[in-house]
Structure formats: structure tokens, C-alpha cells
Design goal:
The chain is of the alpha/beta class. It is built from eleven helices and 15 strands.
Length: 345
């Protein structure tokens, strides 16, 4: 395991440790930190050290699960820990994802406290929210009980409760919870295809004009954000004296009409039940990796009001939601990726 270089005496720059540094969000956050003059060095933690070598960045191969190494020495001297590590699969065995996503996250939080890290930024999600409205936007006070049937939303909501207790026990640590909408970029296309689509999503055929119709279902309205824009908000949360939760989303909300426009397709009114039944059958046969319970959650997620991020983080997304999705779809067609294990093309 590679140890991070110690801060030099008198070095008043900011060292940032990024846990889960090689996936969709991690690569953008590492790059944003590496590009920032406020950050002196970045330590990227991942299960597998990548070939990618951004400036000011060193790497360590670390598993955060309960039998993993002590994280305190890696966090020592850090000005901030950004926790992004997450395991989406296997959805057929949620007890395995629980080890990384919940127990591993608790280890990260506890190690940050023992190492006296002053800032902890945690990757929560729109998925942490309880079912909510599609005709208006909710702020960060909306309940975070998730959708209990889906492992992803259940785990994100559970960690919100863990952080509630953590903040009470460690008021000296500035805790920030990011709750972004769905995150896309070109180089995440191969990873997200493997996680959510599997063999049933032929990436090279996902192009305007080849998909004849988009199902227009009740509840099919959600938000998206370019991952680089989310990374800018993470960096701002490290460098600005803020606490608490921040919604992150770009406009416009994506519904059947917007998606049909992106794909040059027509809308077809369709109840959600047959779509869910098809997804459930594919999941049971191990043809599709995404659980139908996640589909249920998506139809119930509220729309997010990101006003607090715009005001307190001085944050403004550079990409619209449509541009983020279009870039992602281009990446699907190209089989795009990066030289990290999760993003490998």
C-alpha cells in the first residue's frame, strides 16, 4: 500500500483525500482538486491503482470494507476527506453491497474523526430522498428515508442517519452531504452501461433516429447533471465554510418529451407495470444488472431545488441536463472510458 507523502513543515496548502477516486465521480473530483490552486496535494484511494496520473496526485490501493487496512494513517494531515466509494453490484446479493457502502462508509467516517480531519464531504444522492413531487422542486429539508425496496436508496438513506449521529458526536468536523441528481459524462459511459444496462443495452445503437419511441410513463421525470459540474461543487464545499446538505441538479428536468427530442423519437404512452415486469424478468434471468426496485425508486424521486448550492457554493453548472445526457450517449456509442479500472472502456 502506497503511503501519502507527509506535508512539509510550514506548508499551509490543502491536502485532500478522495476515497473512491477512480469512478465516474471520483475521476472528476480528483481532476478538479488537481486543477485547483487551493489544493496542494491529492491522495486518491481505490481498490486498484490506476494508470491515470493527474497532477499533484498520489495513489494508494485500499479496500474500505471491515477487513480492510487502517485508514487513519492515510487520513493523517489531510485538510479534507471526500468520500465517494460505492459498490452498485451485485444487486442480487445486497448484503455484499452493504459491506462496502454502509459498513465501509462508517469506517471512513470514524477514521476521519480519529485522524482529526476538519472537513468530511460525503456523496449522498437524490436517491436518499423519500418519494416526492414531480411538479415542483424540494429543498434539502425534504425527508431522507429513501425508497426502502431498493438497496441503493436504502443504503443512501441509512447513511444519512449515520451522519446525523456523527455530526452530534463530532461538532468540530465540518460535514457536508452532497445530494446530486443522476450524473453523466462521456468517459463514464462504459462503466454505467455495465452497471445498469448490461447485455440488454447495445451502446452503439443508442443514437438519434435508431430508437423509434420513448415510453411516456407516470413518474418518468428526473434530473441529470454533468459529473464535472458536480465535482466543482465538491471542491467548493471543501474550500468554503459551509455545512449540511446540498442538492445538485441542472436544468431542464428530463421527461419523455425531452428524451424523445434527444433521441429524435416519438413518445408512446405506456403504463409502468409492463415495463417493470420486463425489467424484473431480465433481472431474475441475470440479463440486466439493475434491479427493478431501482426503477420503482426513479419513478418516485422528487425533483431537486439546487438554490442553496448556487447561493452558498457560488455554483452554477456549465452543462445543461440535455448536454450531459447527449455527451453520455455519445460515449455509449464510442465505448468511451478512462484508464481506471471502473471506467475501463
Amino acid at each position: 500500500m502506497t503511503r501519502p507523502p507527509p506535508l512539509e513543515p510550514g506548508d499551509d496548502g490543502l491536502r485532500v483525500v478522495v476515497v473512491g477516486a477512480t469512478g465516474n465521480v471520483g475521476t472528476s473530483v480528483v481532476q478538479a482538486c488537481a486543477d485547483s490552486p487551493a489544493v496542494t496535494s491529492v491522495l486518491g484511494l481505490a481498490r486498484r491503482v490506476p494508470q491515470w496520473r493527474p497532477a499533484k496526485t498520489t495513489w494508494a490501493a485500499v479496500d474500505i470494507e471491515p477487513d480492510g487496512p487502517d485508514l487513519v494513517p492515510l487520513f493523517a494531515g489531510a485538510g479534507a476527506v471526500i468520500h465517494l466509494a460505492w459498490k452498485f453490484q451485485p444487486t442480487h446479493h445486497p448484503s455484499q453491497t452493504w459491506l462496502t457502502n454502509v459498513l465501509g462508509s462508517v469506517r471512513v467516517f470514524e477514521a476521519a474523526a480519529r485522524a482529526a480531519v476538519p472537513v468530511l464531504v460525503h456523496a449522498s444522492s437524490v436517491g436518499a430522498y423519500s418519494p416526492g413531487p414531480k411538479d415542483r422542486r424540494v429543498d434539502e429539508s425534504w425527508p431522507t428515508h429513501g425508497w426502502p425496496q431498493a438497496a441503493y436508496t436504502r443504503e443512501k438513506a441509512y447513511l444519512e442517519r449515520v451522519l446525523d449521529a456523527f455530526e452530534q458526536s463530532h461538532p468540530d468536523i465540518r460535514v457536508v452531504r452532497m445530494r446530486p441528481a443522476f450524473l453523466f459524462k462521456r468517459t463514464s459511459a462504459s462503466e454505467q452501461r455495465r452497471i445498469f444496462g448490461g447485455r440488454l443495452l447495445p451502446g452503439r445503437l443508442i443514437r438519434p433516429g435508431l430508437i423509434p419511441a420513448v415510453p411516456d410513463m407516470p413518474g418518468l421525470t428526473f434530473q441529470a447533471l454533468h459529473t464535472d459540474d458536480a465535482a466543482a461543487a465538491y471542491l467548493a464545499a471543501v474550500t468554503r465554510p459551509v455545512r449540511g446538505a446540498f442538492n445538485l441538479a441542472a436544468d431542464p428536468p428530463l421527461d419523455a418529451q425531452v428524451l424523445a427530442g434527444i433521441l429524435h423519437a416519438r413518445r408512446v404512452p405506456l403504463p409502468s407495470a409492463p415495463v417493470r415486469a420486463a425489467l424484473a424478468a431480465a433481472w431474475r434471468l441475470h440479463l440486466a444488472p439493475a434491479s427493478p426496485d431501482l426503477f420503482d425508486a426513479v419513478l418516485r424521486l422528487p425533483l431537486l431545488d439546487a438554490s442553496r448550492a448556487r447561493t452558498e457554493l457560488a455554483w452554477q453548472p456549465e452543462y445543461t441536463a440535455v448536454e450531459a445526457v447527449e455527451e453520455f450517449l455519445a460515449g455509449l456509442r464510442e465505448g468511451a472510458g478512462m484508464s481506471t479500472a471502473p471506467l475501463a472502456a
